[in-house]
Amino acid sequence: MKRSSGPVAALALAGCLLQACSSSGSAKKGPVIGVSLLNVSNEFIVMINQAMDAKAKELGVQIIVNDAQRSADRQVEQVESFIAQKVDAIILNPCEVEASSPAVDKAIAAGIPIVNVNSETRSTPTAFVGSRDEEAARIAMEYIAKRLNGKGNVTMMQGFMGQAGQIKRDTGAREVLAKNPGLKLIAQQTAEWDRAKAMSLMENWIQSYGARINAVFAQNDEMAMGALIALEQARLKDKVIVVGVDAIADALAAVRDGRLDATVFQDARGQGAAAVETAVRIVRKQPYEKSVMIPFQLVTRDNVAQFH
To answer: Do both 287 and 249 map to the same domain?
Structure first.
């Protein structure tokens, strides 16, 4: 979903995101789970991976982590490799709804259980662990509607086009806009979950719309932070409400400091841990839930302390 440096790079290092780190327990006995992640430059995905690693150690299983680098084709190849290695289960963090579906199909055809985490595919996996992305967008846009008293000009930064999070957060946002005819969506464009791209996009919107912009809904926090920086540099932030999704560390700090108006907490650690636990339950033929949905929560300066 996003790329950044500094804190993310440190998190990636600490989280042992590459295969060499995550599969270091090769001497372990027990199930082996192959994991294909959307993009390990993404702080939210880093947190999912860290939670997976911790849960795998707790349950005595080995995980082999691959970075798909936002390529659905690469993700399909990674799953094919896991099938060839005869792993016991696969966890997929899909790059795209459609283009990542063959990965699910191939695993099912090979008789290997596959658990989708955080994002969905058209093809039905053995189980899904995540959150309802429409809900996140509804929470964010309802906050904006309340702050603007139902009237104002809104822009929306979209995630990587075709990914489930982008599609469903777009749907949820539009549901709220439809109920608030006084809110006008004056611009929408993808920044591909990326902070730098969001900053550039916001700069373009400032040039095009200037003081007409009353609020920005960014479909994730990396983009919200990019928009925030651009607005601050243009000295317009005090006139524009900015809301993101995910509650990554930078966004929480910005909310705490009164820079970012709000974010929507998505439980990365809960998703990562539940994905591993679900995969292990399937392998061990224990009861499991086919769909595990973890709720979102609005984070503002009033309650940000409980999320640190």
So the answer is: no
